[in-house]
Design brief:
mainly alpha, de novo design (two linked rop proteins), 78% helix
């Protein structure tokens, strides 16, 4: 009788370990799948940028520095690997694109160009998709990290060498609140 009870306890223990292990695998796969979705959107963004640069290049002949910064930032973003380095490179690309869009506002011919406007709209749409994908990814990473650290999962995750995933974060400069002057008087 005692043998059956011990066997039942051991069986329940093994079933618990298997359930925790499978749950950790499932969550890790969700995080990795979410990262691949970000990657797909970033690739779309990277593919749109050369078209935009080629379209505005002639009109922005005096703004070559801005175009070169966009091209350089894109190259760094394409070659970045981990979520941390990818986030840093993508933040630099976002900043460079923002400067390009600001410069484009000074050129009425570009503002009226349908190709430029369509590419700008596609990039804006892609930026929104990237933001949503980042948010989902970071939520999944937070859940996965929590699951790795709670008892008794922490014993099983350390025994099977489950690694924590990186968040896709914003740079310090992106967190700064921009200064806005809404006064109607010129100073």
């Amino acid at each position: 009788m005692v043998g059956w009870i011990l066997l039942a306890i051991l069986g329940a223990f093994l079933v618990g370990i298997i359930a925790i292990y499978n749950g950790l695998i499932a969550q890790r796969n969700d995080v990795q799948g979410s990262w691949k979705q970000i990657d797909v959107q970033l690739k779309r963004r990277h593919d749109l940028i050369p078209n935009l640069v080629a379209t505005v290049k002639g009109a922005l002949e005096f703004e070559q520095d801005t175009l070169e910064k966009v091209i350089s930032a894109r190259a760094k973003a394409v070659s970045a690997g981990t979520p941390g380095t990818k986030a840093q490179a993508e933040n630099m690309l976002t900043e460079a694109l923002g400067k390009l869009f600001a410069v484009m506002e000074n050129y009425p011919a570009l503002k009226g160009n349908q190709n430029v406007m369509q590419l700008q709209e596609e990039l804006t749409s892609t930026e929104n998709r990237i933001a949503f994908a980042r948010q989902l990814y970071n939520d999944l990473v937070a859940n996965y990290r929590t699951r790795l650290q709670v008892f008794p999962n922490n014993f099983i995750s350390s025994f099977f060498n489950f690694a924590s995933e990186e968040y896709f974060g914003a740079e310090e400069a992106a967190r700064a609140t921009p200064a806005v002057n809404l006064s109607l008087r010129n100073k």
